[in-house]
Amino acid sequence: MPRMRGRLWLQGVFWILVYLLLTSTPLLILLIGPVPPGREFWRELSVALGFGGLAMMALQFVLTARFKVIKAPYGSDVIYHFHRQISLVAFVLILVHPLLLFINAPDTLRLLNLFSAPWRARAGVVAVLLLAALIIASLWRKAFKIEYTRWRIWHGILAIAVFSLAMAHIVLAAHYVNTPWKRVFWAGYGLFWVGLLVWIRLIKPMLLLRRPYSVHQVIQERGNAWTLVVKPVGHAGMSFMPGQFAWLTAWKSPFEDAEHPFSFSSSASQSDSVAFTIKELGDFTRTIKDLQPGQLVYLDGPFGAFCVDRHPHAQSYVFVAGGIGITPMMSMLRTLADRGDRRPLLLIYANNTWEDAAFREEIDSLRQRLDLRVVHVLRDPPEGWQGEQGFVSRELLARHLPPERSRDAFEVFICGPKPMMDNVEKALVELGMHLGDFHSERFDLV
Q1: φ/ψ of residue 74, rounded to 5
Q2: d(C-alpha 63, C-alpha 73), whole Å
Q3: Neighbours of 68 (CB within 10 A)
Q4: How far apart are CA 416 and CA 378, in angstroms?
Q5: Which has the closest alpha carbon to 195: 306, 61, 295, 88?
């Protein structure tokens, strides 16, 4: 375990340094070679901020390209959270770029007139407007009731348009492409970006198309959920760690940008098939029950750091699941059972009603193969219920968590509705748990 932790830590530091290098390189270009005459400090600062924001926007394509080697040290939740936050930083830098020009030289406000402004200014203004539209649509997608697949398609189109127009703005302005090697740099930067697009939109879908899976079973579960079992067709399938997830494309081709992320619910020790348990929550998830045996689907994965295998040193594990958040927990429990793991395990499983508790019979049977204690928590319990009621509170956790709470004594895995996870995380901190000893799978990827 120390070796795994050390390797992941070094990988994490390495990719942070690479990110800082790639975002700062365009700024270093400003300092090398001839500088256009008659350009005061505030104008140069404005340009520097614009270059910095553009570099960050270009690297957004790397963050969403799902390179496993980059995501491994952090997990997908962290990467996508960083993607969202750094988008706002980049937008502020890009927005400040023209604002500084307008404040320092008010006559430049004429460049906002798209009918009379030179083409370099038109490209820059339209790029900023499209970037604002992209960010607004992303932050308030659900409030605007924008369907997920449609949003993904337009998100990609707008991002490509923003970067293309920004590059056109730089080339047409020509102030910092005034030497051959600077032109080579910006050409290389553009080719790097185009290469990412080719990978994301062409090469990766082709690879997925060559490794299809066929539907084996669709099993109805409690809680308005369905377990989809698929088997590889013409290839060995994929190995995954229990608790990880994959992106599933059904009904359409991998080229159509219609994939959705779901946790594996099957054991990682099972090699001939994989399973996902999916609750009916939206347009796509409502179609899972209609998939037919033999129908082809496509998987991109595995991804995620929400996994007991990354913490084999733990003396015991605690799982806190809410509703369909039980899915990755089932993968971990099934895998531990298949491995004959005898460490103490605690599952705290919250549902609205007893009938909503998916897998409850299997969970009960797993206690014969595992040292597993199960605490069901119901918000609306049936008459005569003797178990826990209400929500997973600080007091409930205090009653059931192992008494020894020193660092690395046990690892806690949390998955469920966002309010539940927020409350559980806060309660664990108040109960003295070390931040590195509990892990959440928020699935807030979009």
Answers
A1: -115, -35
A2: 13
A3: 9
A4: 14
A5: 61
Q: How far apart are CA 340 and CA 6, in angstroms?
A: 27
Structure-block tokens of residue 177: 């492409």
The answer, yes or no, to whether the previous bond of 302 is cis (omega within 30 of 0) is yes
CA-closest candidate to residue 263, choices 284, 283, 293, 242: 242
Whole-angstrom distance, CA of residue 262 vs CA of residue 275: 10
Q: Can you point out the beta strands (E) in 222-369?
A: 225-232, 245-250, 260-263, 274-279, 296-303, 316-322, 345-351
Strands of 126-273 (E only): list them.
Answer: 213-221, 225-232, 245-250, 260-263
SS3 372: strand
User: What are the start-end ranges of the H helices in 356-443?
Assistant: 360-366, 394-400, 418-430
- Per DSSP, the three-state class of 48 is helix
Tell me which amino acid residue 312 is: P
If phi > 0 it is left, if psi is from -120 to 50 it is alpha, else beta; for residue 115 that is alpha
b/e map of 233-271 (b: 16 or more CB within 10 Å)? Answer: eeeebbebbbbbbbbbbbeeebeebbbbbbbbbbbbebe
Residue bearing tokens 């997925």: 208
For residue 318, give the 3-state DSSP assignment: strand
Query: What tens-digit pLDDT sequence spans the chain (446 residues)?
Result: 455 566 777 888 888 898 888 888 877 776 666 666 666 778 878 888 888 888 888 888 787 777 777 777 777 777 878 888 898 999 999 999 999 888 888 888 898 888 999 999 999 999 999 999 999 988 888 888 888 778 888 888 888 899 889 888 888 887 777 777 777 777 787 788 788 888 888 899 999 999 999 999 999 999 899 999 999 999 999 999 999 999 999 999 998 878 899 999 999 998 889 999 999 988 889 999 999 999 999 999 899 889 999 888 888 999 999 999 999 999 999 999 999 999 999 999 999 999 999 999 999 999 999 999 999 999 999 998 999 999 999 999 999 998 887 777 889 999 999 999 999 999 999 998 888 888 988 765 55
User: What is the helix, strand, coil percentage profile of the chain, to 5?
Assistant: 50, 15, 30
- Main-chain phi, psi angles of 125, to 5 degrees: -65, -45
In three-state secondary structure terms, 149 is helix
Report d(CA 295, CA 306) in Å as an integer.
30
Nearest to 47 by CA among 28, 32, 67, 27: 27
